[in-house]
Specification:
Shape of chain B: globular
Shape of chain A: globular
Oligomer: heterodimer
Radius of gyration of chain A: 18 Å
Bound molecules: adenosine-5'-diphosphate, magnesium ion
Distance between the termini of chain A: 15 Å
Strand order of the largest sheet of chain A: 6-9-10-3-11-12
Order of helices and strands of chain A: EEEHEEHEEHHEHEHEEEHH
Helix content of chain A: 25-40%
Number of strands of chain B: 24
Radius of gyration of chain B: 21 Å
Largest sheet of chain A: 6 strands, mixed
Number of helices of chain A: 8
Helix content of chain B: 10-25%
């Protein structure tokens, strides 16, 4: 489903990713952990096609196509979703309206029929139930005046409605209290399916108590330095990232 | 604008998509109608004015009124605005009267080519075509070509007709109110308009009447080398309510054309007038060639206690816009509002804003101005809030937001305040923002293309103003912004 090979990326003249390789199969949940500044968000941004993130070497194949050749909106239509570490406010644009515009733009790009407002509302109602989000959020402008937790939950809600094939969650757990964290995790778990894959970027092991990953990778210095199952996350929790630097061998292309 | 009642439904809204479509991509209103025209040769002197007045079969007092304005105009210097770059206007090169050769007596006699023009613009003049009922008066170059729904309005006691007709049919009302809000010598362009105005709309809502439908005027400049000098007068008597909409287009031409209108609103005790404009005059091409000079004086007089006047405008057209719809808050507890979206692109220049003059006690005014600049355009807000000595506890709230798209455009804010009463509260807030890369990427990462993302963000920015527009106008305004912003990013 997703094959990243020897990815090098540069931001603002600085090399951030330096030979990152990773393979994700359908239905798998991969956790990416790493210290601040390791390049975790950079990976998410490169995969979603943000301007200013220059790929200098390597390749990303998604569903058999060259993902890096697509515009951001085309990647979204192809099923790639990024839950932002810092969701953006769009004043005056109604949250529901935004989401419907997004869904219909994607459907149109895929040659599917657009949803009318009744069909869309029905879909939204279903998803609201699963996500345990109050529909009051729907009537507000996109992320405007949302608390940190509300923004993160809104990201997951968007994901639920857009039903991506590859979801990248960038520190969706940061800034959440334990109840909100459980809700987010429950939302993600509800969306797990044999066809849908997740890249769960996190700084802490905590989230992985609730979203059980199939694989855990440690990203440091722009590459995956250690990969393992969920017990790796526990080891990290116990020993800290310094432990990886001392003990971990760069895992290279075998991740 | 064409087919929805005041309590318009979603059905009416959908039917109305045609209006916006008609305004179309890349200024599709830019076509020229081939029609036999008659008119006065270019040039301006007292003879021109007498001839104009004669063609219109005006009474003596009207001719004299025009001549007095003309003589005053001759003594006035053309204003010089620092922020506008404008070629000198040659007033002798303009034709002051152009009209379809055969003057229509009723809608059934209107030249089919004209009807077709308005159909193309999405303004069905035929009552049969106008499904549910916005009454429309259409001004084509210098004359009004037809007013719809006349009978229904007459039953309610509402007068809605062309200004020429009002001068002939309701001279006492015209004489009483014309020039009572904007005196002939008010400013250079108002004086010129008073001398040469050719037509416009007249609305009179008698005491206690709520106008049963939205009233609307559609202005179109068609002929070459003509100016359009329309004059609109709306009078709402005690307790009367009216909502009035105005739309404008012009063909594409390389030379600049002048549009110098005067609009006067009079609200007596407890009366309410809501005046909405969607202005889409030809803005000139992407190199700044051609386009309309839109130099307009609009003023409302809250003459009675507890009256209310609100201006809502969406300005996307014209090479140059110079316009400050104002409210004189004379009556105690009267309310003035101004909601504006002004968008400039390419080489357009807009200098617009409002004046709120507080005279009565406990008067309130609210100003919400949203300026959007793209390309190499310049967009200025210029506003005056004046509180006279006797205006106890007057209140004003002003909010001016500017949105910049690209790096070569400009936004400027000039708020003036003159407060002579210490109990007054005047508040002003201003923001300038850019469409951020973060916002664009956020939209795109959700599947929304760049241009759609821009118009969505702009639409959100304008929300406060669009909310004030009647539903079908809001849809049109939104579409207009989208069209006007094409190519603004990238
Ligand atoms: N847009 C940017 N401009 C400049 N530097 C950036 C930008 N994005 C990321 N960086 C730099 O790249 C490095 C990795 O950042 P990031 O990917 O956000 O790390 P993480 O998410 O793992 O904390 C940091 O040194 C950060 O300062
Ligand atoms: Mg990060």
């Amino acid at each position: 489903m997703l094959k990243i090979e020897n990815l090098h990326a540069r931001v603002a003249g600085k090399d951030i990713l330096k030979g990152l390789s990773l393979t994700v199969n359908p239905g798998e949940v991969h956790a990416i952990m790493g210290p601040n500044g390791a390049g975790k968000s950079t990976l998410g941004n490169v995969l979603s096609g943000r301007d200013g993130y220059e790929v200098t070497a390597g390749s990303v194949t998604y569903d058999g196509i060259d993902l890096l050749a697509l515009e951001p909106e085309a990647r979204a239509a192809a099923g790639v979703f990024l839950a932002f570490q810092y969701p953006v406010e769009i004043p005056g644009v109604n949250n529901t309206y935004f989401l419907r515009a997004a869904l219909n733009a994607q459907r149109k790009a895929r040659g599917e029929k657009e949803l009318d407002s009744m069909q869309f509302l029905k879909l939204v109602r279903e998803k609201l139930k699963v996500m345990q989000i109050s529909d009051e959020l729907l009537h507000r402008a996109v992320n405007e005046g949302f608390s940190g937790g509300e923004k993160k939950r809104n990201e997951i809600f968007q994901m639920a409605v857009l039903e991506p094939k590859l979801a990248i969650l960038d520190e969706t757990d940061s800034g959440l209290d334990i109840d909100a964290l459980k809700q987010v995790a429950q939302g993600v778990n509800a969306l797990r399916s044999p066809e849908r894959s997740f890249l769960v970027i996190t700084h802490y092991q905590r989230l992985l108590d609730y979203i059980e990953p199939d694989f855990v990778h440690v990203l440091a210095g722009g590459r995956i330095v250690e990969s393992g199952d969920k017990t790796l996350a526990l080891k990290l929790e116990e020993h800290g990232y310094a432990w990886v630097r001392e003990h971990g061998e760069p895992a290279g292309a075998t991740a | 604008m064409s087919s929805a009642t005041i309590d318009s439904t979603n059905t009416a809204l959908r039917d109305n998509a045609g209006v916006a479509e008609a305004l179309g991509r890349n200024y599709s209103a830019g076509f020229v109608t081939e029609i036999e025209m008659t008119g006065l040769p270019p040039g301006l002197d007292e003879e021109t004015i007498r001839a104009l007045s004669a063609i219109k079969r005006e009474p003596e007092w009207m001719t004299e009124w025009r001549l007095a304005a003309y003589r005053h105009w001759l003594t006035m210097p053309q204003p010089d605005w620092a922020k506008l770059k404008m070629d000198a206007i040659d007033y002798q090169a303009i034709s002051y009267y152009a009209a379809p050769k055969v003057a229509p007596k009723s809608l059934d006699e209107v030249d089919p080519a004209l009807l077709e023009t308005y159909e193309k613009l999405g303004v069905p003049l035929h009552e049969r075509a106008a499904l549910a009922g916005v009454a429309v008066d259409a001004v084509f170059d210098s004359v009004s070509v037809g007013t719809t729904f006349r009978k229904q309005l007459a039953e309610a006691g509402v007068i809605f007709c062309s200004m020429s007709e009002a001068i002939r049919e309701h001279p006492e009302l015209v004489q009483q109110y014309l020039g009572s809000v904007v005196p002939t010598g008010d400013n250079f362009f108002a004086a010129l308009n008073s001398a040469v105005f050719s037509d416009g709309s007249f609305v009179f809502i008698p005491k206690g009447v709520r106008c049963p439908m939205e009233l609307s005027t559609y202005f179109r400049i068609n002929a070459q080398n003509t100016g359009q000098f329309e004059r609109t007068l709306i009078v709402a008597e005690e307790g009367a309510h009216v909502s009035y909409l105005e739309g404008c287009t012009a063909p594409k031409r390389d030379e600049n054309q002048l549009h110098a209108a005067v609009v006067e609103l009079v609200a007596l005790e407890r009366a309410q007038i809501k005046y909405s404009t969607v202005q889409n005059w030809y803005p000139g091409d992407e190199n700044g060639v051609g386009g309309i000079y839109n130099l307009v004086t609009k003023r409302g007089d809250c003459r009675g206690d507890d009256s209310k006047i609100s201006w809502t405008q969406v300005e996307t057209g014209s090479a140059i816009t110079w316009k400050y719809p104002s409210v004189v808050l004379r009556g105690d507890r009267s309310v003035g509002e101004f909601h504006s979206v002004a968008l400039t692109h390419h080489y357009q220049q807009a200098d617009t804003g409002t004046k709120m003059i507080h005279i009565g006690k406990d008067t309130k005014s609210k100003i919400v101005s949203k300026g959007i600049s793209a390309g190499k355009s310049n967009n200025s807000y210029r506003g005056l809030v004046k509180v006279e000595k006797g205006a106890e506890r007057a209140r004003n709230y002003t909010q001016c937001d500017s949105l910049l798209i690209g790096k070569k455009c400009g936004a400027h804010t000039f708020p003036y305040m003159e407060v002579k009463n210490p109990s007054a509260i005047v508040e002003h807030e201003a923001t300038t923002s850019k469409i951020s890369d973060d916002q664009l990427f956020y939209c795109r990462s959700r599947g929304i293309g760049e241009e759609d993302a821009v118009s969505m963000i702009v639409d959100g920015f304008c929300k406060q103003v669009f909310r004030e527009l009647p539903m079908e106008f809001a849809v049109e305004a939104k579409k207009l912004l989208e069209v006007s912003l094409e190519g603004a990013i990238g």
